[in-house]
Amino acid sequence: MKNQINIADIPGINPLIKDYINKKESTTPFYGRNLSPESLLSQAKEKTSSYIHKEKLVKELQKQLEKLKLSDKQKTNLNNLSLANSVTITTGHQLNLMTGPVYFIYKILHAIKLCDEMNKYQSKFNFIPIFWMATEDHDFEEINHFYFNKNIIHWNEKHRDFVGEISTKGLKEILSDFYEQLKYYPFGKEVRKIIEKSYFSAANLSDATRILVHELFKEYGLLFIDGNSKSLKKLFIPFVKDDITEKRSFQIISSTIKKLKSNHYNIQVNPRKINFFYHKNWERNRIDETNGTYYILGSCKNFSEREILKEIDEHPENFSPNALMRPVYQEVLLPNVAYIGGNAEIAYWLELKDYFITQNIPFPILVPRNSFLLINEVQESKMKRLSWKINDLFLQKEKIINTIVEKKSSYMFDFSKYQSRLESIFDDLLIESANTNPSWKNMILAQKKKQFNGLEKINQRFYKANRLKHKEIVCNFENLHEELFPMGTWQERIFNFSSYYAIIGSDFLARIYKEINEFQSIVSVFNLEKGK
């Protein structure tokens, strides 16, 4: 079984993302170019004509990667990055324990494949995949766990620091049960080796994640960057000053948000007047300003405007961008032409175009990542027996049950004809009352509502009775639905990559890579065991 569904056709997807994918006119003010090979070439031409940080970027990357044994493809990409005609395609994520949900892997593979396809398509530019490590996030609760199948492995610690700087001390004990479970899987030994090389040897979460991602993707040529670097943040000083003292990003993004709201789109992230945190002494605190004094919230520290500008010049590493300024930081540092992200990420990137224009930064092409629903032989067989069609996979659970029960029933009671009859009766009564006593209208409408409520109760009785007749089918469906949509959500948002890697090894990455449709926003449903 192998099928692809357009993400825009799936119920419940953010309307802004649906309209963006469908190129609806109401979204065009919020982005630059659509995704296509030709657009990527145009974007590359624009970016290379204005990008000025190649030498410093490559020097910092060499420093960050010096302890890793790079593959030939990584070495080539790192060398090529210094060339004037090299550009990047980037994705990024938090430093989730063991990479967290498996979509972490999907994002990276999408970026890699898009680069590979562009390098096959043309030779004018070198396209290089980059993983942006979100080491400066501080929400530890979001990254401190992962699911191996349905078993949660949880890191119970309390931290307020950048997650990248958290010590890995104690992780050996946390991962010990998981480590033991892996013994019983064909490729469990490979996963254990990756854990040993990363979490059991690195000093902090940033280093551990870098090693882990390297072990998984080195043969694909992926490079990775940590923006928490003084030398890199020096390049961002003018933008930090502009945001903190001029509040320009707040003004412009707020104006964009008004436009989005006027088109009835929900807002993913609202800007603050100051969109940077102050990071010092193991804490990351918001900055607020009142009457020219800049306060570090949650501390006793404050600055005058002159003092905070001096602090930015001397210690740019103490200033950390929030979710809205991180894309700006990324695009200043990298010769980037496209960003691969999930729907929520793309939604907040769409708030930023006007700000990019004012700062003379090319706005990258936004690419909603591919999603996957992976099934096995048994699940595929169950789906066929239940007549559960691929196009119905993402409907509400009760709607799917209704469809399945209806298909399996030799007799289905059609209640709509009784609703039509009742509607007709009350339409006639309203006409008669208008000719007899118009004041009866509200009484008749109230009675109509009462009768329809009663009819619906009878309908529900028929429905429950019919469902009870097919109790076994409903039970089988609910069990299968829980397997495919654990905890009521998408599989890729729960299970860790190790759930699959432990079974088929690195072929897991190869099969996902093969299935990615790099120029389309789709969900692929396929049997991972067959590789098709």
From TrEMBL:
Residues 6-370 form the Bacillithiol biosynthesis BshC N-terminal Rossmann-like domain. The keyword Translocase does not apply. It comes from the Bacteria. It is an enzyme of class 6 (ligase). The keyword Transcription regulation does not apply. Its EC number is 6.-.-.-. Residues 372-521 form the Bacillithiol biosynthesis BshC C-terminal coiled-coil domain. Pfam families: CC_BshC, Rossmann-like_BshC. Residues 51-78 form a coiled coil. InterPro entries: Bacillithiol_biosynth_BshC, CC_BshC, Rossmann-like_BshC. GO terms for molecular function: ligase activity. Keywords: Coiled coil, Ligase. Belongs to the BshC family. This is Putative cysteine ligase BshC. The lineage of its organism: Bacteria, Pseudomonadati, Bacteroidota, Flavobacteriia, Flavobacteriales.
